[in-house]
Amino acid sequence: MEKFQLCIFLLCLLILHQCVAMPLSNQCIGETLCTYTLKDSYSQMTNLPGDINTRSLATWVYQKKTDLNREPQVIYEARCQDSHSGGSCNSALGLETIPVTLRIPVLRKNSACFPLPSYSVEFENITVACICALARTQEEIAQG
Question: Where is the signal peptide (predicted)?
Answer without folding.
Answer: 1-21
